[in-house]
Description:
This protein is an alpha/beta fold. The chain has six helices and ten strands. One adenosine-5'-diphosphate binds next to loops. This is ABC transporter.
Amino acid sequence: IFDLELNSIGKVYDNGTPAVTDFNLSVTKGEFIAFLGPSGCGKTTTLRMIAGFETISSGDMLIRGERMNDVPPQRRPTSMIFQNYALFPHMSVRRNVGYGLEVKGLSKADREAKVDRILATLGLEDIAERKPEKLSGGQRQRIALARGLVVEPDILLLDEPLGALDANLRKAIQNELKLLQKSLGVTFIFVTHAQSEALALSDRIVVMNQGRVEQISPPHQLYTRP
Ligand code: ADP
Ligand code: ADP
């Protein structure tokens, strides 16, 4: 059974824009998948359909065999990480990370245990009581990652999460992402327009163009014909 199956999914926005057409993909648990392609090719739309932030216009989406088309985002086993971090500036790091668990109604003790564990995993213990607005871009992205992972999703969705970071930091966080993904065994789906990033990180690269999948290849076969 696959972690994620996209069976010919498509998206036509209300204004008639056909953003994604006939997208097929089966993902195994623990895989690192990159969606690669130029701006406007439909990467973010596809990611948002998987997360449940956009309705699916056609086709079926399954997570571990269960049809997800009509399941609201908060009931899907997915978390999404955004390029702009989307952290609450006035809340401490600890509260930001625990927020999703609060929404889910977990007890304080359960929340604290989970939050402490993920803060330690990402090396954020020392800044747990600080506010995000005082922290660096790299630290903020780690906090956003912690917030996505603390709910123990099956699938982590990352929308150009390194785009706002400088080159050195991007490299460092790339390495951390890869280690984290291997150690947690979580499926990662990563959107990028940077070929180097897709090559460095992923097990398979989904190359998109104008709303369609052009090819799906492991990095070492990206430039050879299937
Ligand atoms: P990205 O580079 O991540 O694709 P964009 O700048 O294209 O981001 O889009 C930013 C936001 O604007 C997104 O929420 C997207 O859904 C929305 N958007 C993009 N294109 C259109 C459009 N033609 N009409 C309405 N909203 C759009
Ligand atoms: P990418 O993430 O690859 O940059 P998007 O998924 O953001 O691509 O966009 C795919 C297409 O859908 C683009 O033509 C974009 O302008 C359009 N689009 C994105 N969001 C919206 C929206 N909310 N309404 C209408 N069109 C949109």
